[in-house]
Design goal:
It is a single chain. It is built from 5 helices and 5 strands, in the order αββααβααββ. Helix content is 33%, strand content 32%. The chain is globular and about 45 Å long. A hairpin with a 2-residue loop joins β1 and β2. By secondary structure, the chain is an alpha+beta fold. The chain has a 3-stranded antiparallel sheet. A two-stranded antiparallel sheet has the order 1-2.
Length: 115
C-alpha cells in the first residue's frame, strides 16, 4: 500500500517520502522529513497535530495532513478570490472508532491564527 500511495502522489508531481513506525505509516513532503517523523515516532510534539487529533490515542484509525507544508505545491493554483481563506487552513485531522455497536468519526480543520 505504501508504494501505491507514494506512486499516485509522485505521478501527480508532488515529491514524497514515506516510512513505517510502530503506530502506522508516514507520508511526508520529503524523505528527510519522513525519516525524522519515523525516528521521533510520530507527530506527538506538533501542536497542529494535537489540535487536529486530540483523541488519537483512543482512535481505531487516524489520518493527518499538515496543509501548511504542502502550500508551496497547491496554493498558487487556488483561485485568487479565495486564496487567503485557503491559506488559513493549517491542518486536517480525521479520527475514528469502530466497535461491536458501530462506529463514528471526527473531522477537524485547524486554522492558522490571523495576523
Amino acid at each position: 500500500m505504501q508504494y501505491k500511495v507514494s506512486k499516485m502522489i509522485t505521478d501527480g508531481g508532488l515529491p514524497i517520502g514515506s516510512g513505517y513506525f510502530r503506530q502506522g505509516l508516514v507520508f511526508a513532503d520529503s524523505q528527510r522529513y519522513s525519516n525524522k517523523l519515523v525516528q521521533q515516532h510520530g507527530l506527538a510534539d506538533d501542536p497542529a497535530f494535537r489540535t487536529a487529533l486530540p483523541d488519537v490515542e483512543t482512535a481505531t484509525y487516524a489520518a493527518y495532513v499538515n496543509t501548511d507544508r504542502l502550500e508551496k505545491w497547491y496554493l498558487r493554483r487556488v483561485d485568487p478570490g479565495v486564496r487567503a481563506d485557503v491559506a488559513r487552513l493549517q491542518a486536517i485531522g480525521l479520527s475514528g472508532r469502530q466497535g461491536e455497536g458501530g462506529g463514528g468519526f471526527t473531522l477537524r480543520l485547524v486554522l492558522n491564527q490571523p495576523g
